[in-house]
Amino acid sequence: MDVKSTNQIEAAIDSNYDRKAEIKAFDESKTGVRGLVESGVQKLPRMFHSGVDITENMASDPTLSVPVLDLEGIHNNPALRKEAVAKIRSACQEWGFFQVVNHGIPISVMDDMLDGIRRFHEQDPDVRKQFFSRDLKSIILYYSNTSIFLDKFANWRDTVGCSMAPNPPKPEELPAVFRDIIIEYSKKAMALGCTIFELLSEALGLNPSYLKELNCAEGLFIQGHYYPPCPEPELTLATSKHTDSAFITILLQDQLGGLQILHDNQWFNVPPVHGALVVNIGDILQLITNDKFVSVYHRVLANNKGPRVSVASFFSNSHDPAKGASKVYGPIKELLSEENPPIYRDTSVGEIMAHHFAKGLDGSYALQPFRL
């Protein structure tokens, strides 16, 4: 067959392809990407084809990596604390990401949390389906791809999540497979978040309690991501390039890897360190620090080993108007001067979150609409 005939056939197939119908059928299955794997899919469905060359702009310098911060002794040794504050300051200005070790969350608790999320996603499809919801007011949110109807392509990932502060669900409202561990893990994540906000406050030259008093540590939303083995990982992404909308995110990842961050226009791997947690700056913290701390693009590569499991703890005010979305934030006055005028207008959390959900994973700069 000549090239012209092949092209004509491909064009005909293209014109017959109904993307909306494919996405609708996938979403209505209520079993996510895991459901495709369970059905024995061998080829990557078209809706997941990204068109992204994942080998482009890969970092070539293996000596550069995300800073690792040791929190051992920072509560009772002023010299160690001063060192940690200096390290966190440079990490937030240059990378927007760092890893923490000796953070006070036992490895057994972290491993149990990953196991709980794995169990949820691997339980019987009919049990999973009962929790399926895209309604942000639902107590449990279980779905595949937050903005699947907006995005150019779907990610190879399923997610279960719930708000654990300030108003956690009743224990009986949580899925039994991770009920006890998410309650325990969220308390420990909240305590660690408070410590990190103290260090961030000091790194900005402010009182240690400053960010906490701004309610940065008030809300905690936990998401458990599940990335099954992908039949054609080079054709898609597990998570598209994006920034987080929160103040900070604390990420627990298993040992499979795949997380990458964009630094100096190159994609750097964030290799898993057993016992470490990854922390990154979110858009709202970049806004209130007037770009002193940066919220950077990151993504997750798909793989054919899998499943990869990760747990993201987002510190943010609730996006429910009744519970804090009406709270307004602007650049912190103490950080401003004639040399450093405000870059952003005062903006409500609700407005930032609404923009985040409306734009989906389109790769655009999330804070652009809020610049002065």
TrEMBL record:
Instruction: For this UniProt record, give its keywords in alphabetical order, as a comma-separated list.
Output: Iron, Metal-binding, Oxidoreductase
Which Pfam families does the record match to this protein? 2OG-FeII_Oxy, DIOX_N
Superkingdom of this entry's organism? Eukaryota
* Residue ranges constituting the Fe2OG dioxygenase domain according to the UniProt record: 216-318
Note the PROSITE patterns from the entry.
Answer: FE2OG_OXY
Tell me which cofactor or cofactors this protein depends on. Answer: Fe cation
The UniProt GO MF terms for this protein read: dioxygenase activity; metal ion binding
Residue intervals passing through the bilayer: none
Family annotation (InterPro entries): DIOX_N, IPNS-like_FE2OG_OXY, IPNS-like_sf, Oxoglu/Fe-dep_dioxygenase_dom
So what family is this one in? Belongs to the iron/ascorbate-dependent oxidoreductase family.
- This chain belongs to the protein called Fe2OG dioxygenase domain-containing protein
* Organism, as annotated: Sphenostylis stenocarpa
Q: What is the lineage of its organism?
A: Eukaryota, Viridiplantae, Streptophyta, Embryophyta, Tracheophyta
